[in-house]
Amino acid sequence: MNGQLEQVYEEYNRYIYHLCLKLTRNQTEAEDLMQEVWVKVVRYESYVKDVDHIKAWLTTICMNTFRDRYRKNVRRSKHVMNQPDQLEVPVLDLVPCDTMTAEDLLEKHDLSQMVQQKIGELDNIYKTTVLYFYVYQYSLVEIADLMKVSIGTVKSRLFRAKQRLKEMMIADTTAIEYLPA
């Protein structure tokens, strides 16, 4: 390794290890992942001098390596019939799916219809706040100006609307099958 790469390793070694540990939630897996990350860094050491933000570059390499490992495990587990159990749902959100099956599309459409129906059933003040924020994508400041209330009130209304939507979805026997366990 050249001097610059050694310096990068010394500076970011602990950070990468903790990121790997956070992703895998398993010390052995984290060490394996970290080793793969540093192998890739050494492989692409010619790029190090051109990178402006080393930490961001290393984080990207780490995340991509983790995603690749996860996809490989999932492909393998389809045949073995066991999914990796060390992963949690928020981590799975990091793994994008390129294509949706017809079943996924139908489920997404059904769920969208149900949520739209439930939003329509909300009290007008909550419905308006939700539509401004999620559909029209206004900022909290813009919503506060439009509704002539404080930002705190907008946040409270969004929170209460989401809580009410959740309660309504749980109470609906047809919607309960679409909710995560």
From TrEMBL:
Record keywords: Sigma factor, Transcription, Transcription regulation
NCBIfam families xrefs: sigma70-ECF (TIGR02937)
Name under which the protein is recorded: RNA polymerase sigma factor
Species the sequence originates in: Paenisporosarcina quisquiliarum
InterPro entries, per the entry: RNA_pol_sigma-70-like (IPR039425), RNA_pol_sigma-70_dom (IPR014284), RNA_pol_sigma70_r2 (IPR007627), RNA_pol_sigma70_r4_t2 (IPR013249), RNA_pol_sigma_r2 (IPR013325), RNA_pol_sigma_r3/r4-like (IPR013324), WH-like_DNA-bd_sf (IPR036388)
One Gene Ontology term of the molecular function aspect: DNA binding
Biological process per Gene Ontology, one example term: DNA-templated transcription initiation
Cited PANTHER family: RNA POLYMERASE ECF-TYPE SIGMA FACTO, RNA POLYMERASE SIGMA FACTOR SIGV
Similarity field: Belongs to the sigma-70 factor family. ECF subfamily.
Ranges of residues in domain RNA polymerase sigma factor 70 region 4 type: 113-165
Domain RNA polymerase sigma-70 region: 9-75
